[in-house]
Amino acid sequence: MNVPQWLLTHRITIEPYLGDSAYGPQYGPPVEDVPALVAKAIRLVRDREGREVTSTAQIIAAPGLDCPAESRITLPDGRTTRAISVAHHTAPGLPVPESTEVSAE
Asked: What superkingdom does the record give (predicted)?
């Protein structure tokens, strides 16, 4: 069971992080109009290197979202942010929805 589409009322744009080059971070082509639920709250989270950093937006989307850490995200209000951490929530056999959670700067 996936997170219900009627809960995903916001639309975001994701530019997947591809890695660093001699010219800085490289991003894939933007994926526009991604259905999501965006909550703006300040929380402490750990980045991919284990450091505590502040997240100002949390995003819930359908499972299988291609948004690696460091991806560039444009929120519904037009603010551009960066993905700090990504968690894929699955619960095989349990009656809870599967989803992808992204913590953003």
From this structure: Bacteria
DSSP 8-state symbol, 63: T
What pLDDT is recorded for position 99? 93
Per the listing, tokens 């690696």 go with 68
What gap in Å lies between CA 75 and CA 57, rounded to an integer? 9
Answer for the pair 70, 26: CB distance below 8 angstroms, yes or no: no
Compute the distance between CA of residue 16 and CA of residue 26 in angstroms, rounded to an integer: 9
Burial group, residue 47, by CB count within 10 angstroms (0-12, 13-18, 19+):
middle
pLDDT at 95 over 80: yes
| Ordered domains of the chain (ranges, CATH) | 5-104 (2.40.10)
